[in-house]
């Protein structure tokens, strides 16, 4: 890789690729879990390892796209799982890279579904048609419809100000003293993260259970 860059060096790597979907744990086949881990987690690790020699050489920056959903989940545990894993990968990498002068930053957006289109709305019929016979025996269409309506309503509330996330990425790449984490989210979303981080798990479970029941 070194031969492809001039003496000005290689400054920054932004790991932004990601996919999302909705569904309770048993609704999704193992192949979907493998695909999500491959894109959202291993994809970022692959690019990081490929460019690590250059980043160390030029004391560059590595920026990862995480999410506040790394702290809690509301029907998209598969996405939350990959973001939580990226957070821990970054925590290890950030400490290891200090001795090389390489800075590692995490961007934690809230709900920006309306401007990223990372998660298209899902109909109950689409979800039901993909369920195994075992899951269909446990759940009914009415429940699936309720969950689909709930999740789609969350998507519809997403911010359209994607520039807020881009601004955080630019700051992470160019600031003389970048933050380790940039949480770009609404106050309500930040409050959920606060509760999750500081309160007992039973409290957070109660809050999320209440939200899911509405």
UniProtKB/TrEMBL annotation:
The chain crosses the membrane at residues 62-79, 191-212. Gene3D superfamilies: NAD(P)-binding Rossmann-like Domain (3.40.50.720). It comes from the Eukaryota. It holds the Pfam family adh_short. Keywords: Membrane, Transmembrane, Transmembrane helix. Belongs to the short-chain dehydrogenases/reductases (SDR) family. This is BDH protein. It comes from Hypocryptadius cinnamomeus. The lineage of its organism: Eukaryota, Metazoa, Chordata, Craniata, Vertebrata. The gene is Bdh1_0.
